[in-house]
From TrEMBL:
GO molecular function: GTP cyclohydrolase I activity
Gene transcribed to yield this protein: folE
Origin species: Aciditerrimonas ferrireducens
Coiled-coil spans in chain: none
UniProt protein name: GTP cyclohydrolase 1
Pathway assigned in UniProt: Cofactor biosynthesis; 7,8-dihydroneopterin triphosphate biosynthesis; 7,8-dihydroneopterin triphosphate from GTP: step 1/1
Length: 190
């Protein structure tokens, strides 16, 4: 595991003391271990190769867009170590071999890249890059919408703002009609 649980536990005990707390008081005794396990969970994506999810593919001779929309995710902002939470929309147009991957695998990809210290732009790009590299599709479109708690609960304090990022490749980039159709899918029934 990339996260050193014992070390994080010790440091959280230290952090609590630096925050003016008594780490030995009743309510805080188990907190360092709990926080360490939480980071283990939130950063579990570091321990896996996201591409492995895409090794499952089926011959479908489907040559039109496939989109899984509204994939919920939460990630950790690498600037403040607080969450950003939102939804990802992932679409691809199968390659000339007509092979498709499992729908859940697109959500697993989002999960794998969000369970790391991230910025939203990199998360978006990494999902698109992995799909492009492993599936070799004719097009990839990834849209990510998220609220950053570092903008909601502190600093500029603007809850409810949504940051939208996209990564657009292949046919979705070169053919405006294909891109428009995909974006229409993203916004349908909302
Ligand atoms: N581009 C990008 N910026 C992010 C993301 N998450 C947080 N940030 C920004 O990172 C910036 C860090 O700016 P700094 O000025 O170093 O930090 P800060 O003083 O805490 O900034 P404020 O949030 O404006 O108070 C802020 O503008 C955040 O809004 C992200 O996913 N992508
Ligand atoms: Zn932040």
């Amino acid at each position: 595991m990339a996260v050193d649980l014992a070390r994080v536990e010790g440091l959280v005990r230290e952090l609590l003391a630096a925050l003016g707390e008594d780490p030995e008081r009743d309510g805080l005794q188990d907190t360092p271990g709990r926080v360490a396990r939480m980071y283990g969970e939130l950063l579990a994506g570091l321990d896996e190769d996201p591409a492995r999810h895409l090794t499952v593919s089926f011959a479908a001779e489907h040559d039109e867009m496939v989109m899984v929309r509204d994939i919920p995710f939460s990630s950790l902002c690498e600037h403040h170590l607080v969450p950003f939470v939102g939804r990802a929309h992932v679409a691809y147009i199968p390659g000339t071999d007509g092979r498709i991957t499992g729908l859940s695998k697109l959500a697993r990809l989002v999960e794998a890249y969000s369970r790391r210290l991230q910025v939203q732009e990199r998360l978006t790009t990494q999902i698109a890059d992995c799909l492009e590299r492993v599936l070799v599709p004719r097009g990839v479109l990834v849209v990510v919408e998220a609220e950053h708690l570092c903008m909601s609960i502190r600093g500029v304090k603007k809850p409810g703002t949504l940051t939208v990022t996209s990564a657009v490749r292949g046919l979705f980039r070169s053919d405006p009609r294909t891109r428009a159709e995909a974006l229409q899918f993203v916004h349908a029934h909302r």
